[in-house]
Amino acid sequence: MTDLTPFDFDGQAVRVVTIDGEPWFVLADLARVLDIAAPGRLAARLDEGVRQTHTLPTPGGPQNLAVVSEAGMYEVVIRSDKPDAVRFRRWITSDVLPAIRKTGAYGTPALNGPELLAHAVIEAHALIAANEAKILALTPRAEAFDAFLSTSGDLSVNEAAKILSRDNGILTGEKRLRAWMQANGWIYRNEADEPRAYQRRVDQGALAERARWHHHPETGERVIDTPQVRVTAKGVEALAKSLTKVVDRGELDVTGGDAA
Q: Is residue 115 packed enough to be buried (19+ CB in 10 Å), middle (13-18) or exposed (0-12)?
Protein backbone atom coordinates (compact mmCIF):
# COMPACT_ATOMS: atom_id res chain seq x y z
CA MET A 1 0.00 0.00 0.00
CA THR A 2 1.29 3.47 -0.89
CA ASP A 3 0.17 6.95 0.11
CA LEU A 4 1.79 10.25 -0.96
CA THR A 5 1.90 13.07 1.59
CA PRO A 6 3.29 16.54 0.75
CA PHE A 7 4.99 18.48 3.55
CA ASP A 8 6.30 22.04 3.56
CA PHE A 9 9.71 23.09 4.91
CA ASP A 10 10.31 26.83 4.70
CA GLY A 11 8.09 27.08 1.64
CA GLN A 12 9.68 24.11 -0.17
CA ALA A 13 7.81 20.89 -0.82
CA VAL A 14 9.07 17.64 0.70
CA ARG A 15 7.07 14.68 -0.58
CA VAL A 16 6.90 11.49 1.46
CA VAL A 17 5.40 8.28 0.11
CA THR A 18 4.35 5.52 2.47
CA ILE A 19 5.31 2.11 1.07
CA ASP A 20 4.20 -0.95 3.04
CA GLY A 21 3.79 1.21 6.11
CA GLU A 22 7.25 2.82 5.93
CA PRO A 23 8.05 6.43 4.88
CA TRP A 24 10.17 7.00 1.76
CA PHE A 25 11.35 10.51 0.86
CA VAL A 26 11.56 11.91 -2.68
CA LEU A 27 15.31 12.34 -3.18
CA ALA A 28 15.01 15.37 -5.47
CA ASP A 29 13.07 17.23 -2.75
CA LEU A 30 15.71 16.45 -0.13
CA ALA A 31 18.51 17.55 -2.45
CA ARG A 32 16.74 20.83 -3.23
CA VAL A 33 16.00 21.70 0.39
CA LEU A 34 19.54 20.79 1.50
CA ASP A 35 21.29 22.54 -1.43
CA ILE A 36 22.84 19.33 -2.75
CA ALA A 37 23.59 19.38 -6.46
CA ALA A 38 23.18 16.46 -8.87
CA PRO A 39 20.61 14.26 -7.07
CA GLY A 40 21.15 11.58 -9.72
CA ARG A 41 24.81 11.28 -8.77
CA LEU A 42 23.82 11.32 -5.11
CA ALA A 43 21.40 8.43 -5.67
CA ALA A 44 24.16 6.36 -7.25
CA ARG A 45 26.24 6.71 -4.07
CA LEU A 46 23.49 5.40 -1.80
CA ASP A 47 23.17 1.70 -1.05
CA GLU A 48 20.40 -0.14 -2.89
CA GLY A 49 18.79 -1.04 0.41
CA VAL A 50 17.99 2.60 1.19
CA ARG A 51 16.93 3.78 -2.28
CA GLN A 52 14.53 2.71 -5.01
CA THR A 53 12.43 4.21 -7.78
CA HIS A 54 8.70 4.63 -7.39
CA THR A 55 5.97 5.89 -9.71
CA LEU A 56 4.45 9.07 -8.29
CA PRO A 57 1.95 11.61 -9.62
CA THR A 58 3.46 14.91 -10.82
CA PRO A 59 2.03 17.95 -12.67
CA GLY A 60 3.42 16.43 -15.86
CA GLY A 61 1.87 13.03 -15.20
CA PRO A 62 3.12 9.88 -13.44
CA GLN A 63 6.91 9.67 -13.22
CA ASN A 64 9.44 7.22 -11.83
CA LEU A 65 11.22 9.15 -9.08
CA ALA A 66 14.08 8.16 -6.80
CA VAL A 67 12.98 7.79 -3.19
CA VAL A 68 15.04 6.98 -0.10
CA SER A 69 14.12 5.29 3.16
CA GLU A 70 14.38 6.90 6.58
CA ALA A 71 17.95 5.61 6.88
CA GLY A 72 18.71 6.95 3.40
CA MET A 73 17.29 10.34 4.38
CA TYR A 74 19.81 10.57 7.23
CA GLU A 75 22.65 9.72 4.82
CA VAL A 76 21.51 12.54 2.54
CA VAL A 77 21.33 15.02 5.43
CA ILE A 78 24.92 14.34 6.48
CA ARG A 79 26.15 15.24 2.99
CA SER A 80 24.75 18.77 3.23
CA ASP A 81 26.86 21.76 4.26
CA LYS A 82 23.74 23.88 4.69
CA PRO A 83 23.52 25.36 8.22
CA ASP A 84 19.82 24.42 8.34
CA ALA A 85 20.60 20.70 7.89
CA VAL A 86 20.28 20.01 11.62
CA ARG A 87 17.02 21.97 11.83
CA PHE A 88 15.70 20.06 8.81
CA ARG A 89 16.57 16.71 10.40
CA ARG A 90 14.81 17.71 13.61
CA TRP A 91 11.77 18.86 11.61
CA ILE A 92 11.63 15.43 9.95
CA THR A 93 11.83 13.54 13.24
CA SER A 94 9.56 15.84 15.28
CA ASP A 95 6.90 16.80 12.70
CA VAL A 96 6.94 14.67 9.55
CA LEU A 97 7.45 11.15 10.92
CA PRO A 98 4.95 11.55 13.79
CA ALA A 99 2.38 12.94 11.34
CA ILE A 100 2.79 9.92 9.07
CA ARG A 101 2.66 7.41 11.91
CA LYS A 102 -0.05 8.94 14.07
CA THR A 103 -2.78 6.60 12.78
CA GLY A 104 -0.70 3.48 12.29
CA ALA A 105 -3.21 2.10 9.77
CA TYR A 106 -5.26 2.98 6.69
CA GLY A 107 -8.72 1.94 5.63
CA THR A 108 -9.99 0.98 9.11
CA PRO A 109 -13.70 0.03 9.01
CA ALA A 110 -16.13 2.52 10.54
CA LEU A 111 -16.74 1.82 14.22
CA ASN A 112 -18.97 3.39 16.83
CA GLY A 113 -19.76 3.27 20.53
CA PRO A 114 -17.83 0.76 22.67
CA GLU A 115 -16.13 -0.77 19.61
CA LEU A 116 -14.70 2.60 18.65
CA LEU A 117 -13.42 3.22 22.18
CA ALA A 118 -11.87 -0.24 22.44
CA HIS A 119 -10.22 0.14 19.03
CA ALA A 120 -8.84 3.57 20.00
CA VAL A 121 -7.34 2.19 23.22
CA ILE A 122 -5.69 -0.71 21.39
CA GLU A 123 -4.30 1.59 18.71
CA ALA A 124 -3.02 4.06 21.32
CA HIS A 125 -1.13 1.38 23.22
CA ALA A 126 0.33 -0.03 20.02
CA LEU A 127 1.37 3.42 18.82
CA ILE A 128 3.03 4.30 22.13
CA ALA A 129 4.98 1.04 22.16
CA ALA A 130 6.04 1.47 18.54
CA ASN A 131 7.11 5.08 19.03
CA GLU A 132 9.10 4.24 22.15
CA ALA A 133 10.94 1.52 20.25
CA LYS A 134 11.63 3.82 17.32
CA ILE A 135 12.87 6.60 19.62
CA LEU A 136 15.29 4.20 21.29
CA ALA A 137 16.51 3.01 17.89
CA LEU A 138 16.81 6.45 16.32
CA THR A 139 18.21 8.49 19.21
CA PRO A 140 21.85 7.30 18.95
CA ARG A 141 21.78 7.73 15.16
CA ALA A 142 20.18 11.18 15.38
CA GLU A 143 22.67 12.28 18.05
CA ALA A 144 25.54 11.09 15.87
CA PHE A 145 24.29 13.12 12.92
CA ASP A 146 23.74 16.18 15.12
CA ALA A 147 27.27 15.90 16.47
CA PHE A 148 28.73 15.66 12.98
CA LEU A 149 26.67 18.57 11.64
CA SER A 150 27.08 20.86 14.64
CA THR A 151 29.52 23.74 14.64
CA SER A 152 32.05 21.66 16.56
CA GLY A 153 31.45 18.44 14.62
CA ASP A 154 34.53 17.22 12.74
CA LEU A 155 36.48 14.09 11.89
CA SER A 156 39.99 12.81 12.23
CA VAL A 157 41.98 12.43 9.02
CA ASN A 158 41.58 8.67 9.34
CA GLU A 159 37.78 8.99 9.64
CA ALA A 160 37.71 11.39 6.68
CA ALA A 161 39.66 8.88 4.58
CA LYS A 162 37.11 6.18 5.42
CA ILE A 163 34.22 8.41 4.34
CA LEU A 164 35.99 9.30 1.08
CA SER A 165 36.52 5.60 0.40
CA ARG A 166 33.00 4.55 1.35
CA ASP A 167 30.95 7.36 -0.17
CA ASN A 168 33.09 8.77 -2.99
CA GLY A 169 34.93 5.76 -4.39
CA ILE A 170 38.32 7.29 -3.50
CA LEU A 171 39.98 4.26 -1.94
CA THR A 172 42.56 6.12 0.07
CA GLY A 173 43.73 5.74 3.65
CA GLU A 174 45.03 7.99 6.40
CA LYS A 175 48.70 8.00 5.30
CA ARG A 176 47.95 8.70 1.66
CA LEU A 177 45.37 11.34 2.50
CA ARG A 178 47.77 13.11 4.88
CA ALA A 179 50.49 13.06 2.22
CA TRP A 180 48.14 14.54 -0.39
CA MET A 181 46.89 17.21 2.02
CA GLN A 182 50.46 18.17 2.89
CA ALA A 183 51.47 18.37 -0.77
CA ASN A 184 48.43 20.46 -1.71
CA GLY A 185 48.34 23.18 0.90
CA TRP A 186 46.00 21.73 3.49
CA ILE A 187 48.41 20.78 6.28
CA TYR A 188 52.09 21.24 7.06
CA ARG A 189 54.61 20.07 9.66
CA ASN A 190 56.07 22.60 12.07
CA GLU A 191 59.62 22.68 13.42
CA ALA A 192 58.74 19.93 15.89
CA ASP A 193 57.51 17.77 12.96
CA GLU A 194 53.93 18.02 14.19
CA PRO A 195 51.04 18.18 11.67
CA ARG A 196 49.22 21.51 11.71
CA ALA A 197 46.45 23.02 9.58
CA TYR A 198 47.07 25.98 7.32
CA GLN A 199 45.16 28.96 8.69
CA ARG A 200 43.38 29.65 5.41
CA ARG A 201 41.87 26.17 5.47
CA VAL A 202 40.66 26.84 9.00
CA ASP A 203 39.22 30.20 7.90
CA GLN A 204 37.45 28.43 5.02
CA GLY A 205 35.78 26.08 7.51
CA ALA A 206 37.41 23.02 5.93
CA LEU A 207 39.78 22.15 8.78
CA ALA A 208 39.90 22.64 12.52
CA GLU A 209 42.42 22.06 15.26
CA ARG A 210 41.29 20.48 18.53
CA ALA A 211 43.48 20.45 21.59
CA ARG A 212 44.04 17.06 23.21
CA TRP A 213 45.02 16.35 26.79
CA HIS A 214 46.07 13.57 29.11
CA HIS A 215 46.80 13.09 32.79
CA HIS A 216 50.47 13.05 33.74
CA PRO A 217 51.27 9.49 34.86
CA GLU A 218 53.19 10.68 37.95
CA THR A 219 51.54 13.93 39.06
CA GLY A 220 48.06 13.26 37.75
CA GLU A 221 47.92 16.82 36.42
CA ARG A 222 46.08 17.56 33.19
CA VAL A 223 48.56 18.13 30.36
CA ILE A 224 47.60 19.77 27.06
CA ASP A 225 48.98 17.94 24.01
CA THR A 226 49.60 19.15 20.48
CA PRO A 227 46.33 20.13 18.74
CA GLN A 228 44.99 17.49 16.37
CA VAL A 229 44.08 18.41 12.79
CA ARG A 230 40.39 17.66 12.19
CA VAL A 231 38.38 17.67 8.94
CA THR A 232 34.94 19.31 8.94
CA ALA A 233 31.93 18.22 6.88
CA LYS A 234 32.72 21.06 4.48
CA GLY A 235 36.31 19.85 4.30
CA VAL A 236 35.26 16.29 3.43
CA GLU A 237 33.14 17.61 0.56
CA ALA A 238 36.00 19.82 -0.69
CA LEU A 239 38.46 16.92 -0.49
CA ALA A 240 36.06 14.67 -2.40
CA LYS A 241 35.73 17.22 -5.21
CA SER A 242 39.48 17.87 -5.45
CA LEU A 243 40.56 14.23 -5.28
CA THR A 244 37.91 13.13 -7.80
CA LYS A 245 39.23 15.68 -10.31
CA VAL A 246 42.84 14.68 -9.66
CA VAL A 247 42.14 10.96 -10.07
CA ASP A 248 40.00 11.54 -13.17
CA ARG A 249 42.82 13.52 -14.80
CA GLY A 250 45.26 10.74 -13.98
CA GLU A 251 47.58 13.17 -12.20
CA LEU A 252 47.67 11.16 -8.99
CA ASP A 253 46.78 7.60 -8.05
CA VAL A 254 45.39 7.83 -4.52
CA THR A 255 43.84 4.37 -4.79
CA GLY A 256 46.90 2.29 -5.58
CA GLY A 257 49.47 0.77 -3.27
CA ASP A 258 49.18 0.76 0.49
CA ALA A 259 46.04 2.70 1.45
CA ALA A 260 46.64 2.33 5.17
A: exposed
pLDDT of residue 180: 92
Measured CA to CA, the distance from residue 35 to residue 11 in angstroms comes to 14
Can you give the pLDDT at residue 207? 92
Please give the Cα distance from 42 to 212 (Å, whole number): 35
Best CA proximity match to 168, nearest among 248, 88, 228: 248
* CA distances for 186 relative to 79, 103, 202, 203, 228, angstroms: 21, 52, 9, 12, 14
At residue 75, the 3 state secondary structure works out as helix
Q: Quick one: which of 35, 34, 16, 18 has its CA closest to 26? A: 16
Which residues are paired to 140 by β-bridges? none
Q: Quick one: DSSP state of residue 211?
A: -
Confirm if 188 and 182 have CB atoms less than 8 A apart. Answer: yes
Q: Hey, what's the torsion of the CAs at 140, 238, 175, 151, to 10 degrees?
A: -40
For the question of whether the overall pTM of this predicted structure is more than 0.85, the answer is no
Q: Is the pLDDT of residue 186 over 70?
A: yes
φ/ψ (deg, to 5) at 59: -55, -25
Rg (CA), the chain: 23
One-letter identity of residue 89 = R
Of the ranges 29-33, 75-79, 116-120, 130-134, the best mean pLDDT one: 29-33
- Which residues, other chains included, contact 164 with Cβ-Cβ below 8 Å and sequence gap of 6+? 170, 172, 177, 236, 239, 240, 243
